[in-house]
Amino acid sequence: FLPPQTPRVASQLPHLIPQTLLKSGIEAWNKYGKCANHLASGGFLSVYFFEPNRNNYIEIETALDLTKYLAEEDEIIVWYAVLVNLVTKDLVFDANSYDMYPLLKKYLLKRLASIWNVYSAIIRENSVALQDDYLALVALEKLFETACWLGLEDCLQLSRELFKNWTNQPENEIPSPIKSVILCYGIALGSEEEWDFLLNMYANKTKEEERIQLAYAMSCSRDPRILNRYMEYAITASPFAFNETNVIEVVAAAEVGRYIAKDFLVNNWQAVSERYGTQSLVTLMNIIGRTISTDLQITELQQFFGNMLEEHQRLTVHAKLQTIKNKNLENKRRSARMTAWLRRNA
């Protein structure tokens, strides 16, 4: 057993290792596959390579090279470290519009097959068996989320099964580590009937944590009409409805909702401002601005939000948008390098 601070201390060690040494070490491992396969398992890979990559301590290609040896990896915590650092929110937000997604899907699903088969069987047969395995519980959500995002049919089917069983008999609780993912895909793959079921569940819940979970799940709908209805309800219903969640922000951060929320703001920004405050408009600008990469897009977004914001907020908007643009350009460069690597290796 390792004390809680140990992983954090261990994760700092790679920062002291020169990039050239890391790269030369991996080149040697590539030459001697068995050694690489052994060292890439049991958490060595996750602690020493993927965590520092998140902060640009090593090249993304260097980290990706190590994933070649994970096809038989059965330690879910290793996969968690890989996925949480590789399949980031920025990548998920952008990848569907670029060349990377089909390449990443082909590459990762081949390597995820073994670990997915193990844990999907446990979920179907005896999810209680995991209740004392804290690390597995933490890692399972990311594994499930990534598999479904990559379109693994068994993951999508399992999501449908668990969601349907729960709606038919709510006492059949969805395993808590994957409940948020199941609710989201249940709504994304479902119709207005499933969405209304969640809305009714939300209205009858009293625990804030459960209400937040349901509010986020309802934003996963892929039906523009439902999402517009959701946002309309949020700004016209009682102030006590969705009091713990900013529905407009949640929808704007969703896969389909990001396109719907901007159009909704055109005609409803005053009501949104009254309901959630003008600071929420600044937050929405940051969310909607996740994809900007040119000065022209900055100007367009400034003009879009110009009449909505107070004067002191408008003065800081340009600098914030410039920061977002620079971050987006950095992410695009990283994505381009990942795509090039995947083309060579997928």
Detail the topology: elements first, then pairings.
Blueprint: H1 5-10, H2 19-31, H3 33-39, H4 44-54, H5 60-66, H6 76-86, H7 89-95, H8 100-126, H9 134-149, H10 153-168, H11 179-188, H12 192-204, H13 208-218, H14 224-236, H15 247-252, H16 257-276, H17 278-288, H18 295-306, H19 311-345
Cα shape: flat
Strand content: under 5%
- Helix vs. strand class: mainly alpha
Provide the gyration radius in Å: 22 Å
Share of helical residues: over 70%
**Uncertain regions: pLDDT < 50 for 5+ in a row?**
1-26, 31-42
Average pLDDT taken over every residue: 82
- Main β-sheet, in a few words? none
Task: Calculate the terminal CA-CA distance, rounded to whole Å.
Answer: 37 Å
Helix-strand string: HHHHHHHHHHHHHHHHHHH
Please count the beta strands (DSSP E, at least 2 residues each). Answer: 0
- Helix count, per DSSP? 19
Pfam families: ERAP1_C
Family: Belongs to the peptidase M1 family.
Domain ERAP1-like C-terminal: 54-325
InterPro entries: ERAP1-like_C_dom, Peptidase_M1_aminopeptidases
